[in-house]
Amino acid sequence: MLLRGGGTLLLAAGSLATYAAGQRCQSYTSYSQSRHQPYSEGVYELAYQRPDPACRTFNSSLVEDAILRMKNQTTDPDLFRLFENTFPNTLDAAIKWRGVAANNSDEELAFIITGDIDAMWIRDSANQIAPYRTILKSKDDDIASVFRGAINLQARYLIISPYCNAFLPPPESGMRPGPNGASYIVTPPYDRNIVFTCNFELDDFGGFLQLSHDYYTQTGDVDFFGKFQWIQAVQSILRASEDLRRATYGPDGEWIRPAYTFQSQTMTSFGTLGNNGMNSPVNYTGMVRSPFRPSDDAAIYDFQIPANMMLSRYLAATAAIMEQLPNAPKGLAQQMRDMAAEIRDAVDHWGIVAAPGGQRIYAYEVDGFGGQNLMDDANIPSLLSAPSLGFVSADDPVYKATRAFVLSRQNPWYCAGPVLNAVGSPHIRPGAAWPMAAIMRAMTADDDAEITQAVKEVLSSTDRYGLIHESVSSFDAGQWTRSWFGWGNAVFGQMMMELAERKPHILKQSFQPFFIERDGE
Ligand SMILES: *[C@@H]1O[C@H](CO)[C@@H](O)[C@H](O)[C@H]1NC(C)=O
Ligand SMILES: *[C@@H]1O[C@H](CO)[C@@H](O)[C@H](O)[C@H]1NC(C)=O
Ligand SMILES: *[C@@H]1O[C@H](CO)[C@@H](O)[C@H](O)[C@H]1NC(C)=O
Ligand SMILES: *[C@@H]1O[C@H](CO)[C@@H](O)[C@H](O)[C@H]1NC(C)=O
What we know:
Helix content: 25-40%
Number of domains: 1
Number of strands: 19
Bound molecules: 2-acetamido-2-deoxy-beta-D-glucopyranose
CATH architecture: Alpha/alpha barrel
Number of helices: 17
Shape: globular
CATH class: Mainly Alpha
Structural class: alpha+beta
Largest sheet: 3 strands, antiparallel
Distance between the termini: 49 Å
Radius of gyration: 22 Å
């Protein structure tokens, strides 16, 4: 089985009980599998899925205030309920442990799980707290500590094993590490007492840098980055990225073994890397290989365009932090800017290709030899999300042509039907649309009708659970995967917060299906 952030799979998914304030609390994995009262008052009758206050894993008055404000800003009772469940979800259920480093009581740590395994994915944890940047204003805010704790722990992991993507609880937590993933053959080797899985996914670097950028821009707290291991983590990212830009063949044509290889025993071809763990050969482009995608699936071609866009954008953005740190090695900020610019040039040069209709679009993956994979996947970073990553403007002609391609039958992973029209992912199957991709469509659209339609479809696709599923059959809202998908919940919360700023009138609309009449009341 393929291990996935928060896990489609999972190891004997046991309902590990958590304890809060001496009271026995159900694990959120099992809690989210049934619908709790009171139901919302629209036709969708969405369940109330916030755990009992005593069982919540972090309390934030800022988040509670945001929920109250949103109640005022939304007209539709079902839409508000979906926000009320999803926006606080990471804090309600996923902050498994918070504390400080054993050797430095000023260094906050936060261990954030994505689902039913006690493991922390770098990318998922970054995405799970990213929505709270919309309410983060100062380093003294309650929520600021969660950002710092996540950044510090991610930094530690990125220094120890930059090629790995999911990690076990830190020793400081006293948590017993759960079972480790399946047997893998991976180079470089890693410590199985620290690492949970070791699929190298380039967007882990982007996720860490984006989170750092968010914390810095919202709080202005630049000192934080010089105090602990952030500088070393960025150096580790640069080193690994440099290693993974190398071509398969050297100047004299000799074969060069890649810095990272991965093999596992699996039922799915996307769970391991072909070619004895090395994946397909690449030419030098300036981009960085990502043998695995943001879905945790193996890539067909290693230069994943969206992950390179994300890395380029956030390396450039966080160079602005680095250059302010008195203890940063000289030239490091410039090194970040240089790599960011080289990657951007390579994306423009190698990543923009001709579609069958002749239009110029971004490919999803390329190899630098002319190989190109034209598709998009729901998982973020995706091509659809490029403006949201801040890499390109939504008005850019290449992005617009790419968007039209991605949201059409030309994209093999576009799923259309009466329930949900959105990009899906080979991680599940054709015909299973991902609500997260419909949410991203709304976040990157300017047209009110397009946004409204996407939000309507997402709202209608929770099967009355009031949480965002991973995937939903585009023809049957009753067929879905994962009752608890932390990342999807987070992105929905973020979309609502952004719409409240950008398009407040949309939140004043009714999202009830017009053809259903409510009787009686
Ligand atoms: C959150 O607040 C509730 C009381 O409303 C309390 O019982 C619970 O322990 C708090 N959770 C944390 C993690 O502090
Ligand atoms: C709700 O909206 C009203 C009118 O716009 C305003 O006076 C009130 O302060 C708002 N309440 C909250 C909690 O935002
Ligand atoms: C704590 O340990 C880390 C990892 O070994 C090290 O890099 C850091 O400098 C240590 N911090 C202190 C204050 O000793
Ligand atoms: C491989 O990359 C080199 C240098 O980046 C370039 O000159 C060459 O044309 C590329 N090879 C192919 C087959 O595109």
